[in-house]
Amino acid sequence: MKKLVDVSTIMTQNVVKLNLTDDLTKAESLFKEHKIRHIPVVSGNKILGMLSYTDLLRISYADAADDEDEIIDVTVYNMFTIEQVMTKRVITVTPETTIKETAEILANNEFHAVPVCEGDLLVGIVTTTDLIRYLIEQYE
């Protein structure tokens, strides 16, 4: 297995993002439309936080609804802002961080995605799914 491969080789570059001015209804729509579980929150392209689908589930009954259901509990979502719900202390990696180091960060923390940044600027995202796909490729 290759040992010192940069995370940039497996990161998603075309990242779905949210702004602080977006609402949680939009966030849920993006989660469902793109079939993703993590969305970086940015100002311009500067990383401010991370919102996970689990964050939404904590404040709503969204997990009780059918994923195909277009009815969203707007009342609950309007009670909170993205800034109130997102994780603000985000651990990031650089494109040159190795896949192994990134995997260790995810394995040792309680989240499943890490933004890839150059300074404060978001350039990608790596999820546990990306890591599993990479591992599978190593055995082909």
Automatic annotation (TrEMBL):
Domain CBS: 11-68, 86-140
CDD domains tied to this protein: CBS_pair_AcuB_like (cd04584)
Keyword terms: CBS domain
Record-linked SMART domains: CBS (SM00116)
Signal peptide region: none
The name this protein goes by in its record: CBS domain protein
Native species: Flavobacterium enshiense DK69
